[in-house]
Model the fold of this input.
Amino acid sequence: MSQAKYRLSSIQAVHGKTASLSIDELTIAAGELHLLAGSNGSGKSTLLGILAFLNKPQRGTVYFDGVPVSWEPKECAALRRRVTLLHQTPYLFSGTVAANVSFGLVARGVGKESAQKVVRESLERVGLEGFELRKARQLSGGESRRVALARALACKSEVLLLDEPFANVDRASGALLESVVTSLVAGGITVVISSHDELLGTKLGARVIRLEDGRLAPAPGQSPSEEFLRLTGRENAIS
Amino acid sequence: MGFITDSLREALALILAGDREVFSAVVTSLNVAIWSVIFASLGGVPVGIAVALGKFPMMGAIRVLLNSLMAMPTVVVGLVVYGFLSRMGPFGSLGLLFTPQAIIIGETVLAMPVVANYTVAAIQGADQRILPTALTLGASRFQSLCQLTREVRFGVVAAIIAGFGRVIAEVGVAMMLGGNIRFFTRTMTTAIALETSKGEFAFGLALGVILMSVSLAVNIFLTLAQESHSA
Done:
C-alpha cells in the first residue's frame, strides 16, 4: 500500500445529540482512488467535510501526510489549498464560466495569463471548450456540473474529493467523469468518491470504504476482508 | 384645490428658475446624505455580515439592539449626538455642532442600523453553499466573505439604498445638529418644515417635489441595475 495521505484516528463528529460519525482508525492512501460507499445518512458527506478541512471533528486526530492537523484557521486555509471538494449539488458563482473556473487560481494569486491557460485546459478536459464567456447561471444542469468539475480540476490539488459525482448524470457525462478520475489517479492525485453504489468501486478499481450509521463496516454478509482490516488499521488482526 | 395647483405651478417655476435657496438646500441634503450613507455602509455592512454569520455569545441581544436602533426616533439620535458635540460634551472642543459634519455624524448613526439589519437579511437569505464552495476552492476566510458579499450584492445595495432613504427624508437630526442655517446646514427637509410654518407653501412644495424626484431616481437606478445584471 502507498504512503498514507490521510490517517484518521478516534474521530467523532457530532451533530446535535447523536454521533453522526465515529471512526476508530482509517487510512487513505496517497495517489489512489477510494470509494466511500454508504446509504443516506451513513456519514459520507460528514467525512468528506472533515477530509476537506471544512468541518472540524469534535474528537480525534486527522493526520495529513503524516502531520497531525491542529485545525487552526491559518493551517486549515493552507490545507484547503491542497484539497478540493466538489459538492454533490455544486454552486456556481454569478458571472462567467471563466470567472468560476479561475476562482481558485485567483484566490491562490495565480497571474492572469497563467490562469487563462489553466481555465482553457480545464474546460477542454470536461468537454466544454469555448464556454469561457458563457454566463454560468444560464447553463444546463449537466453543463453546470462539468463547469464545477473544471473549477475543481483547475485548482490542481493533491486531493480531489467528489461527493456523489455519478448521481443523476447521463451516460456520456458518466464516461467523461470516469476518464477524468482515471487520469487524475494516473497522475498521482488522491481521489475520494462518495456514492450509494458500492459496485462502482469494482468498476473503477477503487479501494472501498463502507460506512454504515457513521461507522466503518465490512461488506455485507462477509467477515472483515484483509483490505478492510488494512484500511481501518487492524492489519495485526489478519492471521 | 386651486391653492394646491397654484402652489405646484409656483414650485415648478422655482425649480426651473434655479432658485438659489432651493438648490442650496438640495445640495446640502445630498451632500450630508451621501457622506453619511458611505460611512454607515463602511460600518454597517461588516457588522451585518458578522451578525449574520457570527456564533458568539449575546447574538440574540445584538439582533434585538439592531432592530431597536432601526426604529429609534431621529430626534433621539439628534439629542444623543448633540450631547456629545455640544460645548459641554466630550467632543465639544471640535466645534462641530451646527455644521454639515455634525449632521453627517448624526445621520451615520441613524443609517448604520438600517444598513446592518438589511445586510443581515441579505446574508442569511444567501445560498448556504457559497461559503463552503469558496473555502474548498482555496479562498481565505476574507476572500470567501468578499465572494459571499459579491453574490448577495443586490441585497447589500438594497441595504445601502434603505439607509439613504432613512437619512434623506429625516428632519430631527438635521434640525438639531445642523441648526437649519441658511446656505450652510439647511437641508430640503428642514427647509420644508421652516418654509411651510412661515406660510411659504409653494417653496416647501418645490423642495418636496425635488425630494420625491431624488428618491424616485435612486430607486429607478437600483431597479435598472438589478435588471441589467440578472439578464
